Amino acid sequence: MSTRTVQADRDTCVGSGWCVNLAAGAFSLDATGKVVVEDPEAVRAEDLLEAEDSCPVSAISVELGFVPESE
Ligand code: SF4
Question: Which residues, other chains included, contact 32 with Cβ-Cβ below 8 Å and sequence gap of 6+?
Answer without folding.
Answer: none
